Amino acid sequence: MHTLITPLDWGLGHASRSLALARQLEAEGDRLSWAASGPAAEMLRRELPDQTIHPLPPYRVTYPTRSMVWNVARQAWHWQRTIRAEHRATAELVRRLEIDRIVSDSRFGCYHRGVRSVFVTHQLHPITGFGPATAIYQWQLRNFDEFWVPDHPGHDRLSGRLSSPSGYDNVRFIGPLSRLSEAPGEAAFDVLVLLSGPEPMRTRLEELIFPQLAGLPYSYRVVRGLPTPESAPASPHIDFADTPTLSRLLTAARYVVARPGYSTLMDLRALGKSAVLIPTPGQTEQEYLAQRAQLQGWAVAVKDQEKLDLTDALRRLEGR
């Protein structure tokens, strides 16, 4: 089967878990093609240098305010145009590449009436705080034949109520997806800081964390989450870590500081790491996932990033 994989470009998480899914599909005998945009496309070009990454229109998502409703409302018109444009681009790729199946990781326009279209998501029931936005989200999913949830179906699943199959047909729990595995090679250190997500909030968190690192009573490394050439190996700050590098860093770290993006949480659970989780302001899904991880006992959730006390959060994590 010739499968087209299309990860969303809201940060790097969708591309990360799509790489893990791609390994499974290749093991089952699929031939794969890729289409992406923005940071996701840049990441895939670094991870898959021999693959052509076909272009899709970028969403260019930003989170300029703490209000999820306002952030969505001010960008909704552009997103609808993007969905229509990526649908046209997908149709052209299906025709030109002779695609048999589309696996869209959260790109609403990447479907085709003539081929099996799968939507990969952990959010069948998103938490938007605004009923019409939730209804529009679920209305967009009507075009897909099947839904793949990267989680286990049990009540203690990582995604919780976000992935409840209630109200949907053809939901398949495919298990958590992580491209990472234990990998020795780095000297042990205390804290790995993983920065990620849409701007300007990624940069804002960096601005809050960097001054606190100087006084931190722990050894640390930082991955800035920018798919650009890496910093010098001797630096504790790395712009981008590919799969082998990130596997080694996570294996060597005692604790992690990160956004609770779902792909990051799957990576942390795959390697059994405890974490300080700092939700992107206004991103209600991350707030829910951080609180759930804290209740499960393997994380400390920071409610307000502007009041972040990194030393205190790490000490609370150490005492769990």
From TrEMBL:
Coiled coil ranges (UniProt) are none
User: Could you tell me which residue ranges the Glycosyl transferase family 28 C-terminal domain spans?
Assistant: 246-315
Its keywords, alphabetically, are:
Transferase
Nucleotide-binding as a keyword?
Answer: no
Q: Which GO terms describe its molecular function?
A: hexosyltransferase activity
List, alphabetically, the InterPro entries matched: Glyco_trans_28_C
Question: What name is this protein filed under?
Answer: UDP:flavonoid glycosyltransferase YjiC (YdhE family)
